[in-house]
Amino acid sequence: MTVPEPTVTSSTVVSADGTTIAYLTVGRGPALVVVPGALSVAAGYLDFARALGEQFTAHVVERRGRGRSGPQGPEYRIDKEREDLLAVCDKTGARLLVGHSYGGLVVLETARGCPDIRKAAVYEPGLSIDRSVPTGWMSAYERNLVRDRPFDAFVEFARAMGPESARRAPRWLMRRMMPLALRGPQRSIVLGQLTETLREHREIARLDNTYPAYREIAAEVLILQGGRDHTTQADIDRATLEYTIPHCTGHLFPDLDHFGIDKGDPGRVAGIVGTFFAG
């Protein structure tokens, strides 16, 4: 007997500044909200959401600047993302949050100022501690955007933020490989968000070393980390967060990388997150 595909519905909500925020919904049970990372869209997290949907109603935010959601806007700050997430939470009744990368930073910032959030799971949250997130790539990246050279811009990003193999590769080789590596829908997703990604990483840089504020988080927090291609600094950042956040535990997936939650093994990650939320 074939198991029917879970139904995915699309809804919208209006954020505090009047921006329309879309989100996808799948599953049945207690509500939770998933916040995607940079250079990604809500649909990329549907496998993760479907796995959680066996126990929960999973709402995946289409962050501003993507899809049916409104633009980031000229006054973009992470506070806007926080307002967007709270608007989705208010509409859905969700008090459980999941965030990936930059979305993990959004979740931590939201939980810090919202005692109603009960639990939050963040997969390699995109925050900077003692300048652990590099910023030297941004000037060349922006120049390439201005010159309408998107692949060259993305090369600068990948060499600064990617795994060691990307960081050590020469620019000419990365430039030659990039059009081959980015194909089909993924090419449109990445190239369509280059400006938004720069704004988001400037927010990460602005918030460098503000992590002591996470002592205010009342929610239980689970920090998830991939062990493949990670750095010693990533271990330090995770340990710092676990020490800072009052009710915090960690979980390591030794064989997964930064994209374990959406592209690697979303079902396995969802299993750990579901157990944490159900406990």
> First CA to last CA: what distance?
32 Å
Proportion in helices: 40-55%
Task: Give the biggest beta sheet.
Answer: 8 strands, mixed
Number of strands: 8
Number of domain units: 2
CATH superfamily annotation of the largest domain: Alpha/Beta hydrolase fold, catalytic domain
H/E order of the elements?
A: EEEHEHEHEHHHHHHEHEHH
Write a structural description.
The protein is an alpha/beta fold and 279 residues long. It has 2 domains: 9-130 and 208-278, Alpha/Beta hydrolase fold, catalytic domain (Rossmann fold), CATH 3.40.50; 138-201, no CATH class. The chain contains 12 helices and 8 strands. The protein has helices spanning 46-52, 78-92, 102-112, 138-146, 150-161, 164-168, 171-181, 184-191, 194-206, 232-244, 260-264, 266-278, and strands spanning 9-14, 20-27, 31-35, 57-62, 96-100, 119-123, 220-226, 248-253. The chain has an 8-stranded mixed β-sheet, with helices on both faces. Strand 7 (220-226), helix 10 (232-244) and strand 8 (248-253) form a beta-alpha-beta unit. Helix 4 (138-146) packs antiparallel against helix 5 (150-161).
Please give the structural blueprint.
Blueprint: E1 9-14, E2 20-27, E3 31-35, H1 46-52, E4 57-62, H2 78-92, E5 96-100, H3 102-112, E6 119-123, H4 138-146, H5 150-161, H6 164-168, H7 171-181, H8 184-191, H9 194-206, E7 220-226, H10 232-244, E8 248-253, H11 260-264, H12 266-278
Parallel strand pairs: 3-4, 3-5, 5-6, 6-7, 7-8
Antiparallel strand pairs: 1-2, 2-4
Helix pairs in contact: 1-12, 2-3, 4-5, 4-9, 5-7
